[in-house]
Amino acid sequence: MPLRGEIRLHCGGSGVKLRGMKKLLSVCVLSMSAVGVSEAEPAPAQLKGAVVVLDYTHAEFCTEVLDAGTSGWVGYEQARRSKNGAAEAFNTTVLGIKASRRLLPISSPGEGGIYTYTCKGGDTGEIDVNMWKAHQADAVRVVTLRFDSPTTATATEGVYHGNYIGTIRNIRASIQLPGASASVPDSELSRLIAELEAQKYPTAMESRYQQRLLALLRRMAAGEPATITDAEGKGSTALHCACELSHVELVQWLVNQGADVNARTASGASVHDCVCGKNAKAIRHILRKFSAGK
Predict the structure, then answer these.
(1) What 3-state class would DSSP assign to 256?
(2) Which terminus in the chain has less CB density within 10 A, N or C?
(3) Rounded CA gap, 155 and 144, in Å?
(4) CA angle 181, 170, 63 (to 5 degrees)
(5) Domains assigned to the chain
């Protein structure tokens, strides 16, 4: 018997059309998001310029293999540590659950951004993810928000990719309105900051990159997006600094949070130009995977 609120999508093989899949995901995620909602707040008419922060710490994940019909709900930590071949690849590359938090900067449909928002009526809004711009053109992603205050909501998410459907429920969402600053706890980011603070680098140059990176990560912990730049570092992003330090775990975390892999400093240095050190090969692989057109 399906779990209460579980999405069951039965599709006719790998030939399912993405447009129809998006409509199906939207309907199913909307129906699942109604489960367990006790208080409602009218959904905002628009969120242009806002940043929606999805916190997966207490979420539940279900990956369904379409041809086998197998599925099961697991918590965030279990899903993050999955070692199950193709399912693990789906979880990490498509669902992006190696990071406990995702930032979604909202743009208007005509602006060409990745994330656009539509009010669906009542307490419900929907975020459509342009998977072509997110470099997963053969995938469909829908995030549905049910608002319990003007700046907080419970989110559910549906993802279709190849022969897999991933669904996520019980996501907590906070909405950072334009011009507002909010502090969003993130245990994974706190851990990375603590580890970086404890790291002793042998050269003065590496120490400077370390301090710049720490400053940017602390700003992100206070609610700023992963695309922020360091004025002292002449337009360096956290991703530039992490590449300079050959910190592969931070590089992976930053791209999962929406860091711009094509960003350049004021002098024109790209993120790719900054890759060096013992983890250079692994970092280049991550950047290639997330680069535009890949």
Answers:
(1) helix
(2) N
(3) 6
(4) 120
(5) 13-176 (no CATH), 187-290 (1.25.40.20)
